[in-house]
Structures are given as structure tokens and as C-alpha cells.
Amino acid sequence: MATPPKPGFDHQRWIIPLALFIVVIALWEIWVRVAQIPHYILPTPSRVAATLIADWPVLFSSLLVTLSTTLQGLALALIGGVGLAILFTQSRLIENALYPYAVILQVTPVIAIAPLLLIYMPQPAAVLTCAWLVAFFPILTNTTQGLKSADHNLQDLFDLYGASGWQKLWHLKLKAALPYFLTGLKIGGVLSLIGAVVAEIAAGSAGAGSGLAYRIVESQYRLNIARLFAALTLLSVTGIVLFLFLSWFSNRLLASWHESAREREV
Amino acid sequence: MIVALENVSKTFANGTTALSGMSLTVGAGEFISLLGPSGCGKSTALRILAGLTSASAGTIRWAEDGVDHRAELGFVFQEPTLMPWATAFDNVWLPLRLKGVSRAAAEPRIRQVLDMVGLGDFHASFPRELSGGMKMRVSIARALVTKPKLLLMDEPFAALDEITRFKLNNDLLRLQAAEGFTVVFVTHSVFESVYLSSRIVVMAARPGRVVAEIAVDEPRPRSEAFRTSAAYADSCRVVSHALHGAIGADDHL
Fold first, then answer.
1. Is residue B93 part of a domain?
2. Cβ <8 Å between B85 and A157
3. Interface of A with B (CB under 8 A)
4. Considering the domain boundaries, does residue B122 fall inside one?
5. What's the pTM?
6. Using omega within 30 degrees of 0 as the cis cutoff, is the peptide bond preceding A109 cis?
């Protein structure tokens, strides 16, 4: 088994990926220069970096648009996913009625739904709906699973002490569901970004939009490949930061009690 | 008398008869062990007493009618069954909290029971920070926090090592003497049942039923000296004999 991460600075964990990154970037730079590849085919990393700085105002305002869509989509997915999960555990009838449709919404690729949504809805609403669609399902399924996973003996204990349905939900099921919910949140957060980007690309192909993915489509049309790479870099960094933040948040909430958030002594 | 089972049977939906015609009168201050092999219905009998499952036939008669009997019960499971997200203090608070008692109002009693089980210094510890024996002590403290008349225990010490089990046996006897509750204790250990009980109900499986009732007349409170006494050995022999008579009739073991 791999050595679990230790607190503090772990050289293996940070230095090696970082070194690999520097080596790959350096090889890319050298290869493009030596082979004299035109920048509208493949720009050098230094040109991408320069573009990132030069185009920062336009890229940053686009990033804010995409980020805002992502976070709004995630927020709506949280409300919808957790709300529906609670309804599911309180009523078998509602679960049986709605769950198949939640699955259908999830298995239909969002890239295929996005053009339709863009016909029926204003462009920002359509993009937001796509972000919500993909983030919603992992939060729903994980939270539902978590709400059902509360220890049976503890449920008996709550019955013994005459707990009401709401007391059971609040003091037992929601707490037991927290680790599952946080897993759903981590997946949903990253998926929400992907949903927003997919919808923006669909919208961008239709000549509308202002998000970061639209900048990518636009740059591709204009053969401004350096700016395309710069926008892509920003998207990746956004995804990474989002994931790291959600992981940190999750560990913080579970630190005092859950096995997954603990360092193992070896 | 606190409660009596009269000719109580339990048949599960799949047709298994877990308990057949069990009668048992639980007197105030008694320590009754339900002793038997797995499948003899001892846990089912306990769950029926707790109201966690209903009897298919027979009656459960309580000393007083018209009161909520569950309010007078404490239940200890085989596993500590603690909420992993809550401290020892908050786990013990749970039964009172569910009845609407605030943390501040419950605090004196919580401190008292945690002191009684020897965990006065572990209020703020989470279950994962406690040993198996300590977790079981929290579980017992939680059951006692409501001052129950009747404590129902379902093989509470079965998963603990012998040294810890002996210690908890003594603590349980001490607590019973101090608090005056009545115990119905499920176990598959002859030695444990003899050490703890004033009366042992020996049960057999398929179908679950009572095959013998044996009184252990040794005075209470008991101490470690009882474990090595001749009276203890005699009682163990009598109970073992009854248990093996019951198991001998069962080819499936």
C-alpha cells in the first residue's frame, strides 16, 4: 500500500509532479522552437504565458462569468439534490415517481441537451441549467445513499427514545449522510464547471456568450491558438482550485470524527 | 413485578419462528440473564420488551398501565452504537436531548453518569479516540442517563477482551447496586451469566424457547472472590448442564 500523506510538506507528493511539469513545458518550448512550428498551430509555453498576461482583462472577466455560472449551478444542485434526497428518504412514493427521471436526465449527455436548451431559454439560463444538470445527480445519489446508511441500531435507539421523524432526520440521518454528501459535493462541484463549459461551447458555436469557454471557441475561429491555450490553462486552474477548496472544506467538516479525514499512523 | 411476558411468540415474515411461547416475569431489582445459543430468540425477547419489534402472539404486561414504558427503559447494544460525530458528552446527552432537555439542564446528570462509568475525564473525546471498553462505558452511561427502571442489554460485552469484560462486569454490578435498576441481560456465556445474575433463563433454538430457569442465590453485591468460589463453580456446572441439554437436542449446531 502507498504511504498515506503526512502532515506538513511532503516532498514526494509535490516535488515530483512539479519537476515533471517543468520538464514537459521545457521540452515543449524547445521542440516548438527547433521544429519551427508556426504559433497558429502550436504556440510555445512562453507565448501562452505572454498572452495570458496581455489578454488578462478580457480573460479574467470571462473567467468570472464561467465561475459565477459554475457556482450558481452548484448552489442550485445543492438545494435540489439535498432537498430531493430528503424527500426520497421521507417518502418511498416520491422516490419511485421521480428517481427514474433523475437517471434519465443524468444519462442523456449534456452536450446533446445544450443546443435544445439554447433554443428554448435565454443563453445565461440555458448555460446555468446545464451546469445544474450535471452537478445535481451525484449530489442527489450520494446524499440519498448517505441518508439511508444511518446505523440501524442507532435508528432503533432513536425509536426507543420516541424521536420524531424530524429529530431522526436532523440528529441522525443528516449527520450520517455528511461524508456521502461531501463526496457528492466534490464530484458535483467539478462537474458543474464542466457543465458550464460544455453549454458555453454550444452557445459559443451559436455566436453568443461571454464565458471562458466562449473565448476558447472564439480563439479557435480566429486562429489565436495562444489565447486558446491561455483560456484552457485558466479553466484547468479554476477546476483544480475548486476541487482543492471542496476537498479542504470536506476534510475540515469531517476532521473531528470521520476516518476518511484522518491521518493514519504508520 | 416490572414487566411480564406471557406466552409470547414471534414469527418473522419469512416463516422463521424466533420465539415460541415464552413466559418470563421480571421482578424489580432482579438481574436476569437470557442465556442460549444463537438463534434461541434471546435478542428477539429483548427487542420485544423494548418495543422495537412486536410479538406475533401472547401478551406483554407492564406493572403500570397507561404510562409510556419506553421512558423507563435503557438499552445497550452489542456494539457501542455511538454517534461518531458527537463527543462522549453529546452521545450521553442524546436520550435527554430527544426529550427536549437542553444541554445546560442535562449537564449535571451527564457529568454524574460519565463519572459513574469512570469516564469523568473523557467528556470531550470522540468515539474514535476511545478504546472498545470505554466506548461501551459511554453506551452504558447513555442508557443510564434517563434513570431507567429497566436496563436491557444485548450481549454488551461479547466483543470485548476478557480483562475488560471482567472489569465491566464488576462495574455493572456496582452501578446496579448504586442506582437500583433492574437488568435483563442477553449473553451466550455461562460464566458471565452466573457471575452477574440473580436468575438465569436458559433458552434453546429452533424454535426459540425457554428450557430452564435457574436461580443464583449467591448474595449481592458480588466481587471477584465469587469467581473463584465453590458456589460459583457449582452454579456454572448446573447452568452448563441445562444449556448442553438444550443444545444436545439441536442437530443443526
1. no
2. no
3. 151, 153-154, 156-163, 167, 171-172, 175, 178, 256-259, 262
4. no
5. 0.84
6. no
CATH of the domain at B76: 3.40.50.300
Euclidean distance between CA atoms B134 and B128, whole angstroms = 10
Residues in contact with B136: Cβ distance below 8 Å, sequence separation at least 6, in sequence order: B76, B80, B156, B157, B160, B168
Q: Which DSSP state fits A4?
A: P
Test B52 with A167 for CB contact under 8 angstroms.
no
- B172-179's contacts with Cβ under 8 Å and 24+ in sequence apart are B172/B140, B172/B196, B173/B31, B173/B220, B173/B221, B173/B222, B174/B221, B175/B116, B175/B117, B175/B140, B175/B144, B176/B31, B176/B151, B177/B220, B177/B221, B178/B116, B179/B116, B179/B144, B179/B147
CA distance B29 to B184: 10
As for how many domains chain B has, the answer is 1
Domain that holds residue B227: 21-82+148-248
Residue B195 within any structural domain of the chain:
yes
CA-CA distances (angstroms) from residue B171 to A4, A147, A198, B118, B128? 40, 36, 64, 9, 22
| Residue A213 exposed, middle or buried by CB count within 10 Å (0-12, 13-18, 19+) | buried
Contact A162 B71 (CB under 8 A): yes
Q: Residue A69: how many CB atoms within 10 A of its CB?
A: 26
Side chain identity, residue A126: A
Q: Hey, which residues does B5 pair with through a beta bridge?
A: B24, B60
pLDDT of residue B75: 96
Q: Does B147 touch chain A (CB under 8 A)?
A: no
Tens-place pLDDT, residues A189-198: 999 999 999 9
ipTM of the complex: 0.90
Q: Which residues pair with B62 in a beta bridge?
A: B3
Interatomic CA distance for residues B202 and B235, integer angstroms: 13
Instruction: Give domain A39-255's CATH architecture.
Output: Orthogonal Bundle (1.10)
With a CB cutoff of 8 Å and minimum separation 6, the contacts of A43 are A32, A51, A225, A226, A229
Tens of pLDDT, residues A151-175: 999 999 999 999 998 999 999 999 9
Whether the predicted pLDDT of B164 surpasses 80: yes
What string of DSSP letters covers A61-117? HHHHHHHHHHHHHHHHHHHHHHHHHHHHHH-HHHHHHHHHHHHHHHHS-HHHHHHHH
What is the identity of the amino acid at A86?
I
Q: Are B37 and B205 in contact (CB under 8 A)?
A: yes
**Helical pair A92-107 and A56-90, crossing angle rounded to 10 deg:** 150
Residue B10 resides in a domain? no
Task: Report the pLDDT value the prediction gives residue A7, as an integer from 0 to 100.
Answer: 52
Residues in a beta bridge with B4: B25, B61
Q: Which helix (H) or strand (E) holds B3?
A: strand B3-11
CB B181 within 8 A of CB B150: yes
Cross-chain residue pair B98–A162, CB shorter than 8 Å: yes
Query: B94 to chain A: which residues are within 8 Å by CB?
Result: 157, 161, 171
Q: How far is B95 from chain A (nearest CA, A)?
A: 6
Query: Contact B184/B156 with Cβ under 8 angstroms?
Result: no
